[in-house]
Design goal:
By secondary structure, this protein is an alpha/beta fold. The protein has a single domain (4-262), classed as SGNH hydrolase (Rossmann fold). It is built from 11 helices and 6 strands. It has helices at residues 32-37, 61-64, 68-80, 96-100, 103-110, 129-145, 165-178, 186-196, 212-227, 236-239, 245-262, and strands at 4-5, 53-59, 84-90, 116-119, 149-153, 182-184. The chain has a 6-stranded parallel β-sheet, with helices on both faces. β5 (149-153), α7 (165-178) and β6 form a beta-alpha-beta unit. α3 (68-80) packs across α9 and α6 packs parallel to α7. The radius of gyration is 17 Å and the shape is globular.
Length: 270
């Protein structure tokens, strides 16, 4: 199914380079610039169709860079062998308080028909933490009233602040526990990948937004949980990427291991 992105600003497209990585993932970069030219306005986020599995993202440039919703959709359709519909309201520099005050974001939820609504803001290791916790709790009743489950998409700190990884993890994990929702530990999957190869380029050129590999790894984490499959049985080709087989194996292993360590059972309470 075609996924619908509400509106984004100028995204930063992740890139790769250096040593054995040079050129291997470049062909997998999604054409974000072309995507931006044809995006619908926020008011055009359409209600999901009744005969598909439907998912909604609320986030910022860490969601729309490299088109995470589209990559997630393609992987999930491959895993489930059925139609999937994905919509996204993702704008630059947005946090959950911004989405809360935005009519289109809450209207998209209340339209109903979603299976999971995936919430994301910045790293939230320090000053952003209260907003993440408070507004995840604010959104959760509205999400459930619309028949969906909330999910927290854990991101990562800037490459200049590696000491914040533990704080990012704690903030997003706590938010997921507080709302009894899904927890997608994408940032932890990055760390697992680096345990095997510290040089795998998961950051884009600006040291904050993801490369296409970083986005793919985040999508693998989400799809493994939602589809109840083993990420190691998926592939970059399913996501629309062309990367080295060894790299693909490393990322699929990392997604699986991160979920083994950190995924939580929805409905299990805190």
């Amino acid at each position: 199914m075609r996924h619908v992105v509400a509106k984004v600003g100028a995204s930063v497209v992740g890139g790769v380079g250096g040593r054995r990585w040079r050129g291997r993932a470049a062909t997998g970069l999604l054409l974000a610039v072309g995507l931006l030219a044809c995006l619908p306005s926020p008011a055009e986020v359409e209600a999901p169709p009744p005969d598909t599995r439907n998912f909604l993202f609320l986030g910022n440039s860490l969601t729309y860079t490299n088109d995470l919703p589209g990559m997630f959709e393609r992987l999930l359709e491959a895993a489930l062998d059925e139609d999937v519909f994905v919509a996204s309201v993702a704008l630059p520099n947005y946090g959950l308080p911004d989405h809360w005050s935005r009519t289109q974001s809450r209207d998209a939820i209340s339209a109903g028909g979603w299976e999971v609504v995936i919430l994301q803001q910045g790293p939230s290791a320090t000053e952003g933490r209260p907003y993440l916790l408070d507004y995840a709790e604010a959104f959760a009743p509205e999400i459930r009233a619309a028949g969906a489950e909330p999910a927290l998409y854990m991101v990562w700190p800037a490459s200049s602040r590696p000491f914040d990884f533990d704080g990012v993890f704690d903030s997003y994990r706590t938010a997921a526990e507080n709302v009894d929702g899904w927890f997608f530990p994408a940032g932890e999957a990055w760390r697992v990948a680096w345990e095997t190869d510290p040089d795998v380029p998961l950051y884009g050129p600006d040291g904050f937004h993801p490369s296409s590999l970083g986005t793919y790894l985040a999508a693998l984490v989400m799809v493994e949980q939602i589809a109840a499959v083993d990420a190691r049985d998926l592939s970059a080709a399913d996501a629309g990427l062309s990367i080295d087989a060894e790299v693909d194996t490393l990322l699929r292993d990392a997604a699986h291991e991160a979920n083994q360590r950190h995924a939580r059972e929805v409905g299990a309470g805190g």
